[in-house]
Structure formats: C-alpha cells, structure tokens
Design goal:
Number of helices: 5
Helix content: 25-40%
Largest sheet: 7 strands, mixed
Strand order of the largest sheet: 1-2-3-4-5-6-7
Shape: globular
Structural class: alpha+beta
Distance between the termini: 28 Å
Oligomer: single chain
Strand content: 15-25%
Order of helices and strands: HEHEEEEEEHHH
Length: about 200
C-alpha cells in the first residue's frame, strides 16, 4: 500500500500490473542530467576491469565519467578512432555494471547495443537500444558497425554526452506519454526477478 496500490488493485493480476505500470510511470523524472566525477567505486570491479581492458584493446580511450541525476547511476564514456562510434560502461542499481556501444550518425539518431538482457519494455524510435545479452564489447561493435552511415563524423566527448542526455530525455518524455501497459509491467517484473535469482 505504501507504494501506491489500493485494495482494488490487488483483486486481479491484470489490475495489479496495470497499476504497477501507472506507478512506475509516475516516478519517471522530467529529465536527467550528467555531472562529471573524478572516480567511482564500481559495484562489480571485476566486471568493470574486464570491460575496461576490452575497450582499450579495441582502440577506445576513456574520456570521462559522469553521475546521472536524479537516479544516481554512473556512465563512463569511451571514444573511438572510428567515426560515428563511442562506447560506455555504466553502473546502475537495476542492471549493475554493463557496457554499451553506440553509433551516432550526422542526423543525430543513436543506435545503441548493450550487453544486457531484454527488459520487457518497448523502446522509442528512431533512437534504438538493443539488448544483446551477455556478450563481449567486440560483439557489440560487430552489431553496431552495420548501422553506421557512410558520412558519420569523428566524435568528441561533449557531442557524445549531449547526444546521450538528449536521447534519454526524449525517451523519458515518450515513456510518460505512452505509459507502461499491464503486459509490459508483467514482463518487466518477470525479467527483473529472473535476473535477481540468476
């Protein structure tokens, strides 16, 4: 009840998941911002070191680490010598430490590939997040490169950070508008429980 459920919400599974979707959407922030930090105690240092070493071996260089507000997740940006390509190592309460490779073309559209499991929620287009499962950064790059347009440009840190923040904020606005259906809420909860016991 403290979460916002009423007795009526608990009388059927359909009503429960419908209400869960509404409660979740109500907690979505209006927007996020990133603040640069000098260091972060990664929740899984071994996994972070694995991703760090992999990106360095693939020719990426660490460019900056930021904490996201208001949720308090951390994202570290890695720049590539390849035009239109950058990577991130993130740390959040929901997913722990994971990596992501993103293509950004001149039209500003982002296509990102994460080594996370499916979340059960639909995603906004044209920006796209693809859950690739527990794969290596090299595999993420293989998935990302075919989505890069021929005219992609070399990216700097400010461009990557600004594009990421804009994409996340546009996604938050979209999600508040479309809501979360009972089916999505049920599937997202099922997948979260599965991850917790994996």
């Amino acid at each position: 009840m403290k979460l916002g459920f009423s007795a009526d919400d608990l009388r059927s599974k359909e009503q429960f998941f419908k209400r869960l979707g509404e409660i979740t959407v109500a907690k979505i922030p209006q927007n996020i911002s990133l603040k640069e930090i000098t260091s972060h105690p990664w929740s899984n240092p071994t996994k972070y070191e694995h991703f760090r070493a992999a990106f360095e071996a693939l020719g990426f260089r660490r460019a900056g680490t930021f904490v996201g507000s208001p949720q308090g997740w951390v994202v570290e940006f890695w720049l590539s010598g390849e035009p239109g390509l950058f990577a991130k190592i993130s740390d959040s309460k929901a997913c722990g430490v994971y990596s992501e490779v993103t293509v950004m073309n001149r039209d500003g559209v982002l296509v990102s590939f994460e080594n996370t499991e499916e979340c059960g929620l639909k995603h906004r287009e044209p920006d796209t997040w693809v859950h690739c499962g527990r794969v290596t950064p090299a595999h993420l790059i293989e998935r990302a490169l075919p989505h890069r347009q021929p005219n992609a440009k070399q990216l700097n840190l400010d461009e990557c950070v600004n594009a990421y923040v804009q994409s996340v904020n546009e996604n938050l606005t979209w999600r508040r508008g479309v809501g979360i259906t009972a089916t999505e809420a049920r599937e997202a909860l099922r997948r979260r429980k599965k991850r917790a016991f994996a």
